[in-house]
Amino acid sequence: MDSYFYNIIPIRITITEEERTKILEQYPTPNLPASEEHFQMDREAHGSFVEIRVLLNDYQVQQTKTNKQYLKIRFSNNAGSLNAKMWDNQGAVERTLPILEQHSVFDISAKVEEFNGFKSLTIERISPCTEEINPFSLLPYTQQDMESLTVELFSYLYELQGAYRELSLSAMNRFWKQFSIRPAAKGFHHNYLGGLLKHTVGLMRFARYILKFEENHFKATMKLIQVVEKAHKKELWNAIEKDEKQFVWKDTIDHLYQMFYGMMQHKDTTPNYDLLITSILFHDIGKLLEYDHAGKTFDGFSFLYPTATDESTSIRKQAGITMDELGVMIGHIPYGVLLLTKLIEIENLTFSLEEIHQLSHCILCHHGLPEWGSAVRSPLTVEGYLIHIVDYLDSRYENTEAIK
């Protein structure tokens, strides 16, 4: 891929093969599942036996028409949901209920059944998985090249100057393993493993286009809004002509112009590129703490709160992508500022008081409006408007991509 956003934004990185190798050695990408770990029910024949590892979603004890109990269970893996049942052979239900309550990842042996065109699993054996898991074998993940995304991210970070570069690399040196696997959302956009990495790179692509590839950041932003207008017109025409009713850009154009009007208040201010790119890196980094899923570690909590006890995380049942029961109390926006300020302190980095507030403000305002989760009433800097606009565009554009 050498362009982005309807082929408008060029992707140009200047990295030698030696530099690429060095980046991937220092910041390795996750191990993706082998082909045999991609179990898909619709590819299995009725009557076949399978042995697979799955996540537990939910379960119920139900009754047959002859008043015999059985377990109705819904599992999932990286291909989606898997419906299953377990008959009460020799007390199997009572034996199985305690382990379902205590664990979330299971190895099962089952028979594939088909009834009225729908396939399900009849479980013959189930046991909790006690070894370390690869979350990519259990949860959906980006289909884009994670090595290329990684190299692109660090090529942008290496361009930064002074304390901005030190701060950004310090964050990645400390949190890279978790940053590289995290989703960026539970449902709306980038809601899969690797989504946070992909979304962060996406914002940087927009920011570089606005500040590096166009001569004027207002003209660049106007061009992007015009692209949205054109894309929305195409959506409307497809709905009329082809009955395709996907309206990604519905109700977005007025908001983009509203933000453009706000940005005009700062027409005499030159945006700080290093500040904006660093803010983008941190804008969603709090999602390391806000979301939970199988394979998540709690490094962010122990970093921010080193003296806290952690009994609750040690007994956590982790399965699909959910809101972290602790993280949801604070949210990724405040966490982003907490991580930013603590890293500046422990790394003894020199920023002016104004720069620290500008970085923090970008994180706090990147949702744009209080009703959308922004921690301030509206952006107060040109970088604040820009980070919201590029976040807004990337989060919606992602839903138009064929390969996510």
TrEMBL record:
Single annotated GO MF: hydrolase activity
Swiss-Prot/TrEMBL GO biological process terms: rRNA 3'-end processing
HD domain ranges (all copies): 253-394
InterPro entries: HD_domain, YhaM_exoribonuc/phosphodiest
Keywords from the UniProt entry: Hydrolase
Domain of life: Bacteria
Protein name: HD domain-containing protein
Originating species: Oceanobacillus piezotolerans
